[in-house]
Specification:
The protein is α+β, with helices and mostly antiparallel strands. It folds into 2 domains: 259 residues, Zn peptidases (Aminopeptidase), CATH 3.40.630; 116 residues, Alpha-Beta Plaits, CATH 3.30.70. 32% of the residues lie in helices and 28% in strands. It contains 10 helices and 20 strands. Strands 1, 2, 3, 6, 7, 8, 16, 17 and 18 form a 9-stranded mixed beta sheet that branches. β19 and β20 form a beta hairpin.
């Protein structure tokens, strides 16, 4: 049986409509409202969970469930997130031949509204055709870009699916099966303020302390599995004041949890060594810098077997739509990390996004439509597996 035909023009219009709706992390309600209006005529079941209340956002994860048709196949979960990174307000998409871009002042929002678009088109095509399929479950989650927060709040006891497919990748011929663990670090240094021109020796600069620490930290590409980065620094009030307070955010990632912890310890040691170095005697008293350090596991590594059900189903589905699927490991985290940790096998597939998280982000229309075609093929192969 041939797959339902994808409506290219409808997908392009939907994508452009979605990215025009502002949805920074924790502010996804307007997008969820729009999706619900689009899907209501399909007769699917929809509800929002309490993730928004738990994380301080204005919207929970949007769950969608489409009943099976003429199939005993198990349910399949598709997942994409509704939030976008900044600068992502007032996005103005423009079609440039076979590519969609922003006007260059914002991101495009293909990460991950391309995934959202492909899933909606999949549901529309199922509704309009007589293609047999098992139950289809969808989670459009919130606050993915700031730590997979919405997905972490998903209650999998409410999910029937045996595996999940996350649409949050680039290349259409890749199945992302491996992704790292990540630690996020928050550092605060309390120095001592003083007049920078009159008596700088009475102060200890938090900036100087942190600079000393960073100079001793291994950063960037540590090895083939491990990276580290200082992301943000906030410090200082004026040029004539010795800086007394600094707050910084950093991260470390690795496909090896042992390497991740070793890297995190190395960064921490550099900080503690720098703090110990900066001691001043002021008015006859020894004064020291105060360091506050918080380390949080942001997500845990995934390394799903190439013999797993989702990998095999997606690989076979790729052949059905002319794709020679290859395994891929990435350096970022996705909802698949969370699903795998929670016990739901999951892989990631592409949906055409390129140069995401930059103002050069763009979307290949042919890949966007291919993503929806691949989703339909996944459901077809899942049905065939149940029949065999």
């Amino acid at each position: 049986m041939s797959l339902p035909k994808i409506n290219r023009e409808r997908m392009v219009q939907l994508f452009c409509d979605l990215v025009k709706i502002d949805s920074p992390s924790k502010q996804e309600a307007n997008v969820a409202d729009h999706i619900e209006k689009l899907l209501a005529p399909l007769g699917v079941k929809m509800w929002r969970d309490d993730a928004g209340e738990k994380i301080g956002g204005n919207c929970g994860n949007l769950h969608v469930r489409m009943a099976a048709r003429n199939s005993s196949a198990s349910a399949v979960l598709f997942s994409s997130h509704m939030d976008t990174v900044m600068p992502g307000l007032g996005i103005k998409p423009r079609i440039d031949g076979e590519v969609i871009r922003s006007d260059g002042t914002t991101v495009l929002g293909a990460d991950d509204k391309a995934g959202v678009t492909a899933i909606i088109e999949t549901l529309r095509c199922l509704h309009e055709s007589d293609m047999p399929h098992g139950p289809v479950e969808v989670i459009f989650d919130v606050a993915e870009e700031i730590g997979l927060m919405g997905c972490n709040e998903v209650d999998l006891s409410q999910v029937q699916s045996k595996f999940a497919v996350v649409l949050d990748g680039e290349e259409m011929d890749q199945i992302i099966y491996k992704a790292p663990s990540a630690n996020r670090m928050f550092y605060e240094i309390e120095g001592i303020a003083a007049h920078a021109g009159m008596c700088p020796e009475r102060g200890i600069s938090a900036i100087e302390v942190f600079a000393e620490a960073v100079s001793k930290m291994p950063l960037g590409r540590i090895d083939s599995e491990t990276t580290a980065n200082i992301g943000t620094i906030e410090a200082g009030r004026a040029t004539n004041i010795v800086c007394e307070h600094l707050a910084a955010k950093a991260e470390a990632r690795s496909h090896s949890n042992d390497k991740l912890e070793a890297q995190t310890r190395a960064m921490s040691k550099a900080l503690h060594d720098a703090v110990a170095k900066f001691e001043r005697v002021i008015d006859g008293k020894a004064r020291r810098v105060v360091l506050k350090e918080t380390i949080k596991r942001e997500f845990t590594a995934m390394d799903i077997s190439l013999d797993s059900t989702p990998y095999k189903i997606v690989s076979e589905a790729g052949k059905l739509v002319g794709l020679d699927m290859k395994p891929a490991a990435i350096g970022g985290g996705t909802n698949a990390n969370v699903y795998n940790v929670k016990g739901l096998p999951a892989v990631v597939i592409g949906c055409g996004m390129c140069q995401e998280h930059t103002t050069s982000e763009h979307l290949k229309i042919a890949d966007l439509t291919k993503a929806a075609e691949l989703c339909l093929a996944i459901l077809q192969k899942n049905h065939e597996a149940a029949v065999a």
